[in-house]
């Protein structure tokens, strides 16, 4: 297991048992394959166009066969909402809406039931809608750099979800029931003072990033995360690590 932690007592950051990860600060990057421009006929690329409005007419001009589109890339525009006509993209699996001006989660997204991956980085989203759980096919959710403070149990029924990234938000506490099949969880750069107990229930968790928070101690029960391969918790307020953490190495 990779363990990267710095305690106030030792003042030393250490990585044990394996080489340091390539990016110890952010192991769950939003730069996934779906954010790369593609010339494939099943990818609709509308990134970096400074659009303030996405109309149904414009969508029709871009593609006459929305049912063949599996990825839509709309990052780095100035969009505040999305047209309902996006539901016509009945086979859409990936949507990237990063760095737009939504503030509120676009309601049409919860009607796009074929989605497997949502990327909304830097959109100032403050909350997830109550019907977000309709997206039962989601495998990856990346909502870094927003204004989220709580998510409640919105995600608990998403039984295919394996990757959840909520870094650089405003969580001071994190009380939530998460799907136990999650393997990658990122909560770095929040305001957490206490290790979230709900994490201890994630029996399949392999990567956990809690760096750049205010956590003072890790629970002794952390050795119950028997599948954990990478724990990043640098830049917190740890004075010591529990002895049980040795059971994970």
The tally of beta strands, per DSSP, is 11
Tell me about the biggest sheet?
11 strands, mixed
Runs in which pLDDT lies below 50 for 5 or more consecutive residues are 10-25, 29-39
Helices, by number, come to: 1
Give an overview in words.
- By secondary structure, this protein is mainly β.
- The protein has one helix and eleven strands; from the N terminus they run E-E-E-H-E-E-E-E-E-E-E-E.
- Strands 2-1-11-10-9-8-7-6-5-4-3 form an eleven-stranded mixed beta sheet, with no helix packed on it.
- The protein is elongated and about 60 Å long.
- The termini are close together.
State the main characteristics.
single chain, 249 residues, mainly beta, eleven-stranded mixed beta sheet
Short synopsis of the structure:
By secondary structure, this protein is mainly beta. It has one helix at residues 56-62; strands at residues 2-6, 13-15, 43-45, 71-73, 94-96, 117-119, 140-142, 163-165, 184-186, 207-209, 230-233.
């Amino acid at each position: 297991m990779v363990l990267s932690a710095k305690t106030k007592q030792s003042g030393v950051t250490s990585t044990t048992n394996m080489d340091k990860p390539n990016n110890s600060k952010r192991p769950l990057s939003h730069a996934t394959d779906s954010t790369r421009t593609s010339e494939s006929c099943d990818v609709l690329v509308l990134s970096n166009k400074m659009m303030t409005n996405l109309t149904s007419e414009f969508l029709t001009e871009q593609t006459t066969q929305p049912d063949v589109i599996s990825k839509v890339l709309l990052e780095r525009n100035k969009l505040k909402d999305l047209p309902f006509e996006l539901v016509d993209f009945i086979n859409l699996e990936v949507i990237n809406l990063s760095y737009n001006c939504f503030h509120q989660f676009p309601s049409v997204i919860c009607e796009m039931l074929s989605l497997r991956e949502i990327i909304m980085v830097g959109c100032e989203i403050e909350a997830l809608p109550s019907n977000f759980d309709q997206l039962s096919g989601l495998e990856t959710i990346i909502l870094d750099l927003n204004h989220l403070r709580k998510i409640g149990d919105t995600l608990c029924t998403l039984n295919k979800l394996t990757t959840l990234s909520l870094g650089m938000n405003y969580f001071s506490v994190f009380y939530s029931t998460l799907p136990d099949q999650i393997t990658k969880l990122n909560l770095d750069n929040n305001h957490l003072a206490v290790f979230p107990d709900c994490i201890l229930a994630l029996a399949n968790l392999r990567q956990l990033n809690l760096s750049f928070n205010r956590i003072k101690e890790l629970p002794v029960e952390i050795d119950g995360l028997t599948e954990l391969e990478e724990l990043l918790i640098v830049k917190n307020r740890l004075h010591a690590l529990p002895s049980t953490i040795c059971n994970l190495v």
